[in-house]
Amino acid sequence: MDERARLDGAAEASCGLAQGGGQGEKAASAAGEPAGTKRPCVLVGVTGCIAAYKACEVVRGLQKAGVRAKVVMTEHATEFVRPTTFRALTHEPVAVGLFDEPGDPIHHVSLAQECDAFVIAPCTANVVAKLACGLADDLLTTTALATTAPLVVAPAMNVHMHENAATQENLRVLAARGVTLVEVEEGYLACGDVGKGRLADVDAIVAAALRAAGVRRDLEGRHVLVTAGPTEEPLDPVRCLTNRSSGKTGYAIARAAVRRGARATLVSGPVALEAPEGVQVVRVRTACDMLAAAEEAFPQADIAVFCAAVADMRPERVAPRKLKKGRDDDALASVRLVPNPDVLATCAARKRSGQVVVGFAAETDDVVESARAKLASKHADLVVANDVSDGRAFGSDDNEVWFVTADDVRAVPRLSKDRLADEVLDAALKARG
Ligand code: C5P
After folding, report:
1. Which of 243, 290, 360 to probe ligand 1 with, by most ligand atoms within 8 A of CB?
2. CB within 8 Å of 199: residues ≥ 6 apart
3. pLDDT tens-digit map of 134-189
């Protein structure tokens, strides 16, 4: 089977998924994400020049920011980078020809409607000219004409092509129409010339695309520390004392922090979750290990969210070998427990000005009152309280909570843990003042 035929097959297979539901839900379901997650979608247009390989980095940059990236290429671009590369990076079909998509005769309209921004990087002088004229003679340019999403263009070309009055005029036309231009850079060009024409820095292109897609980057330059999951306190080499916790909320908060531009450190107890993209994960087992890792990261953190369900106590002695019925009955009958350090309270006691500390409280009764008491006793700025009396919060994909601060109590309706993560970060920013 040739490359195009395989791509068609993949495109067709995904087509059904891309058809029902609203725009954001379509994106979420196609990517196999939990319902309620609305990942923004950026369409990356790749045109035929030597800088086409840098579009791979643009795709990765968008993905690191939590964005769903799809790729459309011109025929000439496929001479530089194979569609397979982008398909492997995006896990999405990669479109090239206007009529490649047997299941979707108006593919350009589906692509155009699906995206929250269309970034063409690199954009050749030819495609700049076509965009300026409103030409639509292939899938990429037809999609550009059909979309109402913001258009971002990052040109790349030979210095003389860039200087040419026609190109300069075309770029002015695009800018006047509200297209975001990510200016070429000066330097050594692949053709051997030196001058203006190099594709802009990938980070600048990604930042422009994220802005155009309305992705929030309000945590840029901030460091967010999150503790998540349970801890395990060993009794012997095979048994342990632990808490029920899936870690989903903490992982969602770390993911949201990175999506919004922060650097995130996630100190995680044992959970069955994948490390989120772009997050520094420190895996720990016991409360004492968690405290050590959190204490190391805490001084650099602007926002510290203590989400972990830390075991409040641990067996005083860890048996060196598996305790056995019969042989070790005395030891089993007298397992002594000793208190564990409080990770949140220990870190918060050293809080510096400007740092925000967020705690969680899982309660079965007097939820808000208990949260208020915890706020004071642990020196937290915000406590996210939830009612676990019916066991519903554990492992589920949504939750219903209260935000408790020194002067406010706010009930937050049931939300997916991903949306709750953004709410927690918003509330933390607000608590910081
Ligand atoms: O006291 P309680 O366990 O209910 O407090 C819950 C809050 O304190 C959560 O934010 C949890 O992550 C944190 N905590 C902690 N270390 C402990 C116990 C709780 O960081 N040993």
Report:
1. 360
2. 51, 54, 121, 122, 154, 155, 156, 184, 185, 205
3. 999 999 999 999 999 999 999 999 999 999 999 999 999 999 999 999 999 998 88
pLDDT of 102: 64
What digits encode the pLDDT tens for the residues 79-129?
Answer: 999 999 999 999 999 999 987 776 776 777 889 999 999 999 999 999 999
- 303 Cα–ligand 1 center, Å: 16
Q: What is the pLDDT of residue 25?
A: 35
Is-cis flag, bond preceding 339, omega within 30? no
**What is the distance, to the nearest Å, from the Cα of residue 121 to the centroid of all Cα atoms in its chain?**
22
Query: Mean pLDDT, the chain, as a whole number?
Result: 89
CA 212 to chain centre: 17
Determine the distance separating the centroid of ligand 1 and the alpha carbon of 310, expressed in angstroms: 6
Mutate to test the pocket of ligand 1, among 233, 342, 346, 368 (most ligand atoms within 8 A of CB): 342
pLDDT one-digit tens code per residue, 224-272: 999 999 999 999 999 999 998 999 999 999 999 998 999 999 999 999 9
Comparing CA positions, the residue from 128, 137, 142 lying closest to residue 181 is: 128
Residues with Cβ within 6 A of ligand 1? 227, 287, 306-308, 310, 312, 340, 342-344, 359-361, 374
Neighbours of 25 (CB within 10 A): 15
Query: Residue 400: what are its φ and ψ, rounded to 5°?
Result: -125, 125
Among protein residues, the one with the nearest Cα to ligand 1's atom 6 is 361
CA distance 310 to 230: 6
Distance of CA 317 from the midpoint of ligand 1 (Å): 23
The secondary structure of 288-339 as a DSSP string is HHHHHHHHHHGGG-SEEEE--B--SEEESS--SS---TTTTHHHHHT--EEE
Active-site residue set: 191
State the Cα–Cα distance between residues 72 and 111, nearest whole angstrom.
9
pTM of the predicted structure, to 2 decimals: 0.79
C-alpha–C-alpha distance, residues 433 and 426, integer Å = 11
Structure tokens at 346: 């220990």
pLDDT per residue as tens digits for the range 393-403: 666 777 889 99
Calculate the CA 174 to chain-centre distance: 31
Residue with structure tokens 């979750």?
273
